[in-house]
Write a structure and sequence with these properties.
Layout: E1 5-9, E2 17-26, E3 33-41, E4 44-50, E5 55-62, E6 65-74, E7 82-89, E8 96-101, E9 104-105, E10 109-113, E11 128-131, E12 142-151, E13 161-163, E14 170-172, E15 188-190, E16 210-212, E17 239-242, E18 247-250, E19 256-264, E20 268-276, E21 284-290, E22 306-310, E23 315-317, E24 320-322, E25 334-339, E26 344-349, E27 352-353, E28 370-371, E29 380-386, E30 396-400, E31 405-406, E32 409-410, H1 437-440
Antiparallel strand pairs: 1-11, 1-16, 2-7, 2-12, 3-4, 3-11, 4-5, 5-6, 6-10, 7-8, 8-9, 12-15, 13-14, 17-18, 18-30, 19-29, 20-25, 20-30, 21-22, 21-29, 22-23, 23-24, 25-26, 26-27, 26-28, 31-32
Length: about 450
């Protein structure tokens, strides 16, 4: 949702209760980012936001702070969906204001201010209600799912989610029992299922938002988390992550190494990458790496357990490059099939497996680029090294781990995928699946 917000003007009411529930996956850390807010002015506003130290703040400001819960907990896992519930009831003699994270009420706060009984709030006023920014600033960078904004009710986290009896994971309830109040009020449930007009499915209340910017609907959701590239690896300066950490670029004139959020130790997985613009030469070392060998200031291929397909068509491992397939460049789509059950790695260019590779050939490994060693660290990560050559200031790689997009552009014609997990440009080899939590558990 970076540089995107959706908003509407609320109808004023005198409610003394509120519940906001949402699932959130962060992409960018270290910056103030608004998730949900009501804005009238700098003197009258309310917000739920991540602060620059990656803590969470739930606040109401009316010329001064009249309610605040600022957590000590830091939210720095860019691979996780967090379930956040913030609520209050200031009709009580001792007003109640709570924050829940993944079903557990927060009790440790860096800053805490309680409402006074029956005080007017900015949350239940006729202000501009915004999702993804406040007053067109402090844009949220990440993904949102299942956002409930319920006036007149104080619901705890267990209303919206529950513990899975089989896995022990905290998961959304499909049809929670919600009292939305009278038709035409401000309460709603936003599923983020229709990026065209953002119409809502909200029980008795159907409301609509205005969208400023561009929303992208993804396969990534609380019940199936997809791999991205990982901004927490130490990559130094002049590095940019975008599009939910599926696009990466650098202006460095020496190599920068990038790696994924997921590691792979067994199973069969498929993903795609598109380079743009084309820097030529050997600017791109694209493949996999033993996670224990990550090194920002060099390139993947020099590592003993780094296996890459170079954009000049060669393959490289442990610093030795040999002939392999066709060169690739701007807007070509490179598919990868990693068979960890048989330790085989294959690459495709625009749907054609290089070296006449057959990813379904099992232990035979027909046309495989590499037979990979057992990773010393226990897992391989998706890895790439790139740099900016003369005349190309910002080489960019766009990954599709199954969300069906390269950057903000949808795949042109989705290929077949027998696993049913993920959307890709080209056919997924039989027996392979997307690198996601559901894929890992097949």
């Amino acid at each position: 949702m970076a540089s995107t917000r959706i908003y509407r003007t609320l109808a004023q009411n005198g409610d003394k209760k509120l519940t906001v529930s949402f699932w959130v996956k962060r992409a960018k850390l270290g910056a103030t980012q608004e998730v949900v807010a009501n804005w009238y002015s700098g003197s009258y506003n309310a917000t739920i936001r991540f602060l620059s130290d990656d803590t969470l703040e739930f606040t109401d400001y009316r010329t001064s702070v009249i309610m605040k819960r600022a957590t000590n907990r830091k939210f720095r896992d860019v691979n996780a969906w967090y379930h956040i519930v913030c609520n209050f009831d200031n009709s009580l003699g001792t007003p109640s204001q709570k924050v829940f994270v993944n079903g557990v009420e927060e009790t440790s706060f860096a800053s805490s201010t309680n409402y006074s009984q029956n005080v007017e709030t900015s949350w239940n006023n006729d202000y501009t209600h915004e999702i993804g920014a406040t007053n067109s600033a402090n844009y949220f960078d990440g993904s949102l799912s299942d956002l409930y904004f319920i006036q007149g009710q104080q619901y705890d986290a267990s209303t919206f989610a529950e513990t899975d009896a089989s896995t022990g994971e905290w998961k959304p309830k499909i049809n929670p029992t919600i009292n939305y109040g009278a038709t035409g009020n401000n309460s709603y449930h936003l599923k983020f299922e229709n990026s065209a007009n953002m119409d809502l499915d909200s029980g008795d209340n159907t409301v609509s938002f205005t969208t400023a910017g561009s929303l992208t609907q993804t396969e990534d959701c609380p019940s199936n988390v997809f791999c991205t590239m990982n901004p927490l690896f130490p990559m130094g300066s002049n590095v940019t992550f975008s599009n939910g950490n599926t696009s990466i670029s650098t202006s460095n004139t020496s190599f920068r190494m990038f790696a994924s959020t997921f590691g792979i130790s067994s199973g069969k997985f498929y993903w795609e990458m598109k380079p743009t613009p084309n820097a030529g030469g050997d600017f791109c070392h694209f493949g996999i790496l033993d996670s224990g060998q990550f090194d920002n200031d060099t390139y993947v291929a020099v590592k003993s357990q780094g296996y890459v397909y170079l954009n000049d068509g060669r393959k490289n491992n442990n610093g030795t490059a040999t002939s392999y397939g066709n060169s690739y460049g701007n807007n070509d789509i490179i598919g990868v099939a990693l068979d960890m059950d048989n330790k085989k790695l294959y690459f495709a260019k625009n749907g054609t497996w290089q070296n006449s590779g057959v990813p379904t050939s099992g232990s035979t490994g027909t046309g495989a680029a590499f037979t990979v060693a057992t990773p010393n660290s226990g897992a391989y990560v998706v890895a790439v090294s790139i740099y900016a050559q003369s005349g190309v200031t910002d080489p960019k790689l766009q990954y599709n781990f199954g969300n069906g997009y390269f950057g903000t552009t949808a795949v042109s014609s989705a290929g077949t995928n027998a696993s049913g997990i993920g959307i890709f440009e080209y056919d997924v080899p039989t027996g392979y699946t997307a690198l996601s939590t559901k894929g890992l558990n097949l």
